[in-house]
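Sugar ABC transporter substrate-binding protein: structure, please.
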Amino acid sequence: MRRTPIVLALLGALAVTGCSSSGGQSAPSAPPATSAAQEGSGAKFAVITHGAPGDSFWDVVKNGAEAAGEQYGAQVTYQGDGDPAKQSQLIDQAVSEKVDGIVVSMANPDALKEAIGKAVAARIPVVTINSGAGSSKAFGAVTHVGQSEDVAGRGAGEQLKAAGVTKLLCVIHEAGNVGLDQRCKGAEETLGGTVERLQVDVSNLADVTSKVTAKLQSDQQVNGVLALNPAIAVAARDAIRDAGSQARLATFDLSADVVEAIQAGEVLFAVDQQQYLQGYLPITFLNLYKANLNTVGGGLPVNTGPGFVTKDNAAQVAELAEAGTR
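Here you go.
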């Protein structure tokens, strides 16, 4: 059988890692780099999300993408904008720059369909992340990396039901974001009680606290709050305190503040979609596609969650959150 350089590199890696320290040889501190990684792939990848700069969630996605780019010697540019029209413009710009691959989140898939179609038509591979999994394949993306929002919502509803919640306030912080509504619907399916939605603006957290406080004071049957964003979770925690409510609070996604609140017993749990992987994996997949025409997922999304962070594992996650990887 003809052994290509890639096969030889893999065989060499297996030969080294197959020796344990107990056999008299010291184990390597890190896996040996392939020749492609040593030389640098020279690829250019654009990551375009709907997350505003400085958002704690999207900063971790950015960290993952940039770490992968550094590992593979690829150039990674990250840009985030919550306006789908501006997101489309950024995709068009990446196409005009003839990048080797585009990573894009689709909170509003229909608004991005045309721009993504142009990228696909230009034979630029696209990996979608985070939101819009249902449209990813139809739009021509190589794969989708994220979590099933329906499944995650159902998991949250089950845990809230076990905690005794019978009437839940689901706080939606971005109008038109299909993934957020899917989370609320999923929770509604498994809670076995009432789920009421409250629309707020994530850019005005003081107003979020005020609106949640008012709702808890006006309807004391609400004994659970589900935030869909870590900043909203902190605002909701303050609202529960201000209202003198005993409502149980849970959230989607992590931040250092949320992990601290879980440790303090102020937040019951966080649904963790491991957003670092939503940055890291797409760059890995695109790099493999460029180098070896590999595709991942077989037409199905690559799930990064849901996982759950509770008081039992919050201390371990806290250390990782400080490092910017969770």
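Notes: The mean pLDDT is 89.
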